[in-house]
C-alpha cells in the first residue's frame, strides 16, 4: 500500500495506492500532497515551476504545487513562512500516513496532515491540524489549499433555489476581493453553480469566496471530476467575511480551497479541519448548466457523508 518513490524532483516521497488510485506525498518539505490520480492516469493536482517563490523578510516560500495547509486569514509574512525542511512521516496503518512539519519560526505554529486512502475506490480523507506552541495563543483558521492541474474549471454549488414568495432572507455570503471582476470571461455565474476556469492568456488574478453550506466543491478537467467535501458549521465565525470555500486563478494557475472556522488556539492546543476527496473519470458535463447539473447530481448524491 505504501512505498518510497521519487516525484517532482523530490527524492523522498511516499506513494499510497489501492490499485484504483494513488496518492503521493513528500517528506522533503511541506507537508504537501503532490499527486492524486487514477493509476496510470493524469495527476489532477497541479505542480508549480521549480523557480516559483514568494520572498518575505522570513525567506523564500516556494509553492511547489499540490495540496498544502496554511492559516487564514492570509497575512505576510505569517502565511509565507518557508517550509523547505524535512518533515516527519509516520505510518499509522496500511493506508494512512501522518506528516508533521517542524515548529515554524517565528510563528511557533506546527502543521500536520493525516492522509488516509480508502482500501478500495477513490476516497481519501485528509485531517489538517494546526498546533500552537511558544508563549502566546493565536486566532486563526485551518486553510486547505489545493493547486489543480490547469485546463479545467472549479465548480461551486449555489444554495438551493427558493422563490421570493418562499424566502425573503439571503441564502449565503459571496465575497469579492479588490481585484475580482465578475465580468471576467473565466467566471460563469449560474443559477445552480459558480464556475471559474483557467486561461493561460489571462494572467490577471481572479478570486471569489462563499459560505458554502452544501459541503462540497469540485474541479473538472478533461473528463475527470475531483470532488472535495468539507463542513460548514452554522454559527461559527469563518475568515474572509464568512468564507469556508474559495477559488483563485491567474493564467494557468488555479486553486480550490476550503477553510475551517476561526479558532482561538491556546499554547499546546490544536485546531482541526477535515476534507474528503473523491475522483471520477469519464464524466461528460456538456456545454450548459443543465447538462452540468445532470452529470453532477448523481455523483454528489453517491458520496458518503463527511465524518
Notes on the protein architecture:
This protein is mostly beta strands. Helix content is 6%, strand content 45%. The chain has two helices and 23 strands. It has helices at 239-242, 289-302, and strands at residues 2-7, 10-17, 21-26, 32-38, 54-56, 59-61, 67-72, 88-93, 96-100, 109-117, 124-132, 138-147, 153-157, 174-176, 187-189, 193-197, 206-210, 216-221, 224-229, 245-250, 253-259, 263-265, 270-280. It has a ten-stranded antiparallel beta sheet with strand order 8-9-10-11-23-19-18-13-16-15, with helices on one face. Strands 7, 12, 14, 17, 20, 21 and 22 form a seven-stranded antiparallel beta sheet that branches. The longest helix is centred in the last third of the chain and has 14 residues, at 289-302.
Amino acid at each position: 500500500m505504501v512505498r518510497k518513490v521519487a516525484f517532482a524532483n523530490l527524492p523522498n516521497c511516499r506513494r499510497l495506492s489501492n490499485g484504483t488510485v494513488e496518492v503521493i506525498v513528500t517528506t522533503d518539505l511541506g507537508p504537501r500532497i503532490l499527486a492524486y490520480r487514477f493509476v496510470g492516469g493524469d495527476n489532477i493536482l497541479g505542480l508549480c515551476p521549480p523557480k516559483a517563490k514568494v520572498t518575505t523578510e522570513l525567506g523564500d516560500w516556494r509553492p511547489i504545487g499540490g495540496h498544502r495547509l496554511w492559516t487564514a486569514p492570509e497575512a505576510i509574512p505569517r502565511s509565507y513562512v518557508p517550509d523547505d525542511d524535512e518533515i516527519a512521516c509516520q505510518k499509522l496503518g496500511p493506508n494512512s500516513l501522518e506528516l508533521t512539519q517542524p515548529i515554524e519560526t517565528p510563528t511557533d505554529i506546527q502543521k500536520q496532515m493525516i492522509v488516509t486512502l480508502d482500501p478500495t475506490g477513490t476516497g481519501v480523507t485528509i485531517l489538517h491540524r494546526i498546533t500552537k506552541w511558544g508563549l502566546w495563543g493565536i486566532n486563526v483558521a485551518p486553510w486547505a489549499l489545493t493547486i489543480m492541474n490547469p485546463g479545467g474549471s472549479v465548480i461551486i454549488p449555489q444554495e438551493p433555489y427558493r422563490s421570493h414568495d418562499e424566502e425573503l432572507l439571503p441564502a449565503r455570503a459571496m465575497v469579492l476581493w479588490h481585484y475580482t471582476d465578475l465580468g471576467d470571461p473565466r467566471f460563469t455565474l449560474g443559477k445552480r453553480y459558480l464556475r471559474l476556469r483557467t486561461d493561460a492568456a489571462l494572467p490577471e488574478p481572479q478570486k471569489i469566496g462563499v459560505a458554502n453550506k452544501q459541503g462540497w466543491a469540485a474541479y473538472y478537467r478533461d473528463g475527470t471530476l475531483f470532488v472535495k467535501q468539507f463542513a460548514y458549521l452554522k454559527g461559527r465565525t469563518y475568515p474572509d467575511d464568512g468564507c469556508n470555500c474559495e477559488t483563485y486563478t491567474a493564467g494557468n494557475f488555479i486553486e480550490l480551497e476550503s477553510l475551517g472556522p476561526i479558532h482561538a488556539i491556546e499554547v499546546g492546543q490544536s485546531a482541526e479541519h477535515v476534507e474528503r476527496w473523491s475522483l471520477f473519470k469519464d464524466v461528460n458535463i456538456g456545454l450548459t448548466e443543465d447538462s452540468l447539473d445532470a452529470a453532477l447530481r448523481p455523483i454528489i448524491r453517491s458520496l458518503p457523508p463527511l465524518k
